Amino acid sequence: MRKVRLLSVLILLVILISACDGQTTLPDEPYSPVEYSLYPCPEGAYVGDTMPYVTEDGTLELYYLYDTDHNGQGYHPIYKYSTKDLCSYTDHGMALNYGLMSDPDPAIGTGSVLRDNEGLYHLFYTGHNDTGNSGKGKECVMHATSTDRENWTKIPEDTFYSPDNYSKDDFRDPEVFWSEEENCYWMLIAARENTLGGVVAKYTSTDLKSWEFAGPIFAPKEQYMLECPDVFRMGETYYLTYSWDCVTYYAMSDSPNGPFTVPEDNVLDGNNFIFYAAKTAELNGNRYLCGWLGRAGLSSDSGVYQWAGNVLNHQLIQREDGTLGVCEPVTFEEYFTTEKQFAAVKKEGSVKIKNNTITLSEGALADMGTRPATMLLECDVTLDADGCAGFAFGGSESDETWTVLCLDAKRGLLHYEGYEIADLSRFDPQAFTKFDFSANEVHHVTLVCENEIVVLYVDDMKALSSRIRHSIDGAHIGVFAESGGAEFSNISMRLPE
Question: How far apart are CA 84 and CA 285, in angstroms?
Answer without folding.
Answer: 13
